[in-house]
Structure formats: structure tokens, C-alpha cells
Amino acid sequence: QVQLVESGGGLVQPGGSLRLSCAASGIYSIGPMGWYRQAPGKEREMVAFISAAITTNYADSVKGRFTISRDNAKNTVYLQMNSLKPEDTAVYYCKAERVTTRSSGQESDYWGQGTQVTVSS
Predict the structure, then answer these.
(1) Which of 3, 25, 37, 46 has its Cβ near the most Cβ atoms within 10 Å?
(2) How far apart are CA 80 and CA 21, in angstroms?
(3) So what's the pLDDT on residue 53?
(4) Segments of the chain with pLDDT less than 70
């Protein structure tokens, strides 16, 4: 059973930092991993993505402030968020693409349960 478990969300003041983690378990292989976010009343949007070859892609709104990284040995992706702004407030979701398990070679995408990030004074 594939699971993505996120951690690291919370309440932070503007200008502060948080580090999100997402650990994947129950997998055999995994492709790109990334982070999306969804604010109240808005559509889910891509924040940052990283390939298995460590190529990264960022939304314009977070470039220069957020850094995505991954530990392939631990099947874990991280999102370091600096200089946080109130508009960064959202539920952050981890996504893993092209995941296979030992019981199935079929590739599938999976989402984490989400972690709340609130930026407020």
C-alpha cells in the first residue's frame, strides 16, 4: 500500500521559514515528486517539482524563496520555505508521479493528505 506522509506545516509569522517533508512508503520506484497548494476558494496550484534526476521547476510566485530537494534513498521530498508571505497560506499537498510497487509494474500517481501552512502575524 502506497502512502505519502507529510509533515512540517504550521503557523509562522511573515518573513519566517518552514520546512515541509513528504515521505513515500510501500513503493518500488518513483519518478518526479512535487508540492502543490490550495488556498480557500482557489484552485490547487503547482508550487515546485523535482525529477528523479534532480531537475527542478518552481512557480513564479515562490522562485527565490522556496527550495525543493529530495533524498532518493529515503523516498522523501522536502520543501524549504523562506521569506513566507500571508499569500503563501494554504494546504500544501505532496505528489509522487510514476510510482510502481513490487506487486505491480503499472505506474500511478499519488497524493499526500495535505498539511496546513498559515502565515500570519
Answers:
(1) 37
(2) 9
(3) 86
(4) none
Backbone phi, then psi, for 87, in 5-degree steps? -70, -5
Residue 66 in contact with residue 49, Cβ under 8 Å? Answer: no
Single-letter amino acid, residue 97: E
CA–CA distances in Å: residue 45 to residues 27, 34, 54 = 25, 11, 21
CB-count exposure of residue 37 (10 Å: 0-12, 13-18, 19+): buried
Instruction: Quote the CA–CA distance of 33 and 95 in Å, as a whole number.
Output: 6
Contact 114, 7 (CB under 8 A): no
Cβ atoms of 35 and 20 closer than 8 Å: yes
Kindly state the cell numbers that stand for 37: 497548494
Give 53's Cβ-side CA count (13 Å radius): 1
